[in-house]
User: Fold this.
Amino acid sequence: MPQTNNNNSSNYDNYSGMQAILESNCVKIISEGALLLEMPHLWLRDNCPCDDCRVTETQEKSFILSDVSADISPSDARISNNTLWINWPDGHQTNFNIEEVLALSSPRQQPPLSWGQNFQPEYFAWTEFLSDDAFAAVAIQSFLDFGVIVINNAPQALETLELLAPRLGPIREMLFDRIHNVCVNTHVYNVAHTAFALPPHNDFASYSFPPSAQALHMLDNEVEGGRSIIVDAWAVVEKLRQERPDYFEILCRFAVPFREFDEANETYAVEPMIKCDTAGRISSVRFSNQLMQTMDPMMEGVSAFYQAYHELCVRITDPMQRCTFRLEGGQILLVAAHRVLHAREAFTPSGKRHLQDAYFELDNIANKIVQLKRNSEVTLV
Assistant:
């Protein structure tokens, strides 16, 4: 049986008098006259947890569904001691713990939290983040909840971001550089390497799958201006969906070209600005004014797209949507890049301003919470 989070499972004591009913295409479990579970026959056979159907060392399936006919049906189904017992015509027996099956309806991870009014990201100390598992777990959970944290008092040294790998997983290497230097006297292939203001965006919109987490490490910040800005794009887009569902639908299906390049490299992707998962939840917002490319004006739907895009731009650049703060030397801004857009005010290059950034993957960061709980028995509150 696939592993489940038993903390979220239903309590068997709440169900009495359960009985299994074998029907032509499924097994139903009834409790006090109400339908509790309905399990198709193929699901029952495919998910058999026995040692003959699983690799015992890994709990991966060894049974494959093509080994049985599509119309397979149990010969018997019964419930005993909170366990569903299934007998198959070939003599194979399957059993399921009913609470474990009920727990499959609970999400493995809690949904992200809204920022609320006057939101500011939480700050966490560098040394404790790397050395204290319980501290790191709280910081990572805050990051998963809100899509952003700031790490304080990091070394103001080149390649410091490499040291985050034990907590965030390996760096995802992108073109141009493994760790990018952002300052006015470096290799200029992006407006970020100037003193101009940067509108809210996420990096590498020109990739088919852009990096899902970004760490921006300020080594030195001696200039006037240049405050950092973050925007919760998911919140902006969700409000757009509620108020202008027609625009939301257009932005979900109209593919937009994005390009980033220099003398030696080119990345190019044509993707919608908004993507949702199979449940309709927003999973990514792709927004980059500087990387968006010119489209054929005769393309079908381009006029309607531009109406929707204009509305999205107005909302994303609305000062009321911004969280603004100054990123000082030795601070690292960590953002969930498919959710949180980052930006920067213009600055006067009268002093040194040197930022390095690198990219990570949200799946690897989420895995760290699982590891910390499992290995250190960390309890989050």
